[in-house]
Amino acid sequence: MAATRLFWERGYEATSIGELTAAMGIRPGSLYAAFGDKKSLFQEVVRSYGRSPVGAFMGVALEEPTAYGAFARILREAAAIYPDPSHPAGCLTISAATNVTPQDAEIEVSLRTLRNENLATFEARLHRAHQTGELPPAANPRSPAAYFAGVIQGMSQRPRDGATAAELTETAELALTAWPAAQH
């Protein structure tokens, strides 16, 4: 979808109604009739992105049998997906949130909420791993959840600065070395 590409490349704020309607091949009135306003179009774009292979890979990966396997898959897939030239670099929900003005704080809040939901999902998966003994008893599931969320967010930005899949793969493998180990 043309609107997805524009929001992903430029962010919410920097994408104008004129650019959206030109890219979509419609008149402004048609955009307003179909979506109501730019915010509503953006929210539909984010929902659609979340169901796409690029946006949904983390949820699928979290279904791996082990938590380590889930996070290894997430990091490795992010390393391949984020710099893929078939779409804009990085992650829409991270890159579209830049430079949101105070009058569009609702957009910033909704994107922050999505990112925090991902963090909560990570933490829940790690709590299950803690309960099953996959994480050592002294491990606090919140800490690796926040760590891996931060790494993934950073990995999303790096391709916008020229990072390759090879570089991101090295980052992913390095991040996996931080997996909580049993204390001896």
UniProtKB/TrEMBL annotation:
Descriptive protein name: AcrR family transcriptional regulator
Q: Where is the HTH tetR-type domain?
A: 1-53
Q: Which controlled-vocabulary keywords does the entry list?
A: DNA-binding, Transcription, Transcription regulation
User: Which stretches are labeled DNA-binding?
Assistant: 16-35
Query: What organism is listed for this UniProt entry?
Result: Streptomyces griseochromogenes
Query: Is DNA-binding a UniProt keyword of this protein?
Result: yes
Q: Which Pfam families did the record assign?
A: TetR_C_13 (PF16925), TetR_N (PF00440)
The reply on keyword ATP-binding is no
